[in-house]
Amino acid sequence: MFRRSRHPSSGRAEGEESPALPDARLGGQRPLPASEYLPGDPAVTLRDVHKRYGRGNSAVHALRGVGISLPRASFTAVMGPSGSGKSTFLQCAAGLDRPTSGSVLLGDTDLTKLRESRLSDLRLTRLGFVFQHFNLLPALTVYQNIRLPLKLAGRPVDRGAIEQMLARVGLPDRARHRPGELSGGQQQRVAIARALITDPDVIFADEPTGALDTTTAAEVLTLLREAVDNLGATVVMVTHEPSAAAWADRVLFLVDGEVSDELMLGDPEEISARMRVLTSATDRPQSAAPGMRGRG
Ligand SMILES: Nc1ncnc2c1ncn2[C@@H]1O[C@H](COP(=O)(O)OP(=O)(O)OP(=O)(O)O)[C@@H](O)[C@H]1O
């Protein structure tokens, strides 16, 4: 089982009370759900988002009126049975796909009103992505992979900042290596460094631990957790694994395209139990994610 390690006072002045982080299971109490800490300052807001694929009898309603607000500097996991709309949620929230109706706001910017060119600029400058299979460019070195989003966005490259980022993800001596020379966990750490280097408003992670063993997965989740706690990043992560979701502040459960439930600071057992209820209610088989079984 993964162990969550929190950093209660990080990102705040010394002695300042942290509103967000005391973990009930680590002996503290958390009086409010994350969604209520910064009610006026969400990083991402979905308002009555519908997504329909196809038309007529063959139409699939992948999202049915999702309305949710994700506070800045929070870590949200999205779970749900196979086909419940998790990927569609992530794609719409990240401006990679357009909802059929409803709106998606990144801060104050309504993504559904932007042209494609503005949207891709915004994805480069304000969003970070971490994928299950890392998606690093194999011909580039680790350093060049991390530098890439800055170059694509036409932003100045600060060599020191990239080296610092490499140290932050625990790979200070791997700058000249190619991804093929690294383990899966190391590649995912590079992908996280690449996602963080632009200081994005939100990092979207799609099954970031799906290809990793338990120990390596915990290292990667620690980095995402630290990005939230120490850098004030906002992370949204789709996962099938209760042990991974337990690193989040909040778990959203999707069923048939709707947010049917949520859990604050759930531990793997609670999250698994909630998933079992949802899965039996929808009477659908789980996706064959190995992490879903045997963990938590
Ligand atoms: N491009 C598409 N065209 C038609 N239907 C689609 C498309 N993409 C997704 N769907 C359908 O929308 C529904 C939600 O799919 P989605 O991939 O978002 O679910 P998911 O929860 O991520 O599933 P999984 O856990 O299996 O990856 C499913 O019924 C799926 O078949």
UniProtKB/TrEMBL annotation:
Stored InterPro entries: AAA+_ATPase (IPR003593), ABC_transporter-like_ATP-bd (IPR003439), ABC_transporter-like_CS (IPR017871), ABC_transpr_LolD-like (IPR015854), MacB-like_ATP-bd (IPR017911), P-loop_NTPase (IPR027417)
Keyword list, A-Z: ATP-binding, Nucleotide-binding, Transport
Region span, Disordered: 1-41
Gene3D superfamilies membership: P-loop containing nucleotide triphosphate hydrolases
GO molecular function: ATP binding
Domain ABC transporter: 44-281
Pfam families: ABC_tran (PF00005)
Protein name, UniProt field: ABC transporter ATP-binding protein
Species of the source: Streptomyces decoyicus
Source organism phylogeny: Bacteria, Bacillati, Actinomycetota, Actinomycetes, Kitasatosporales
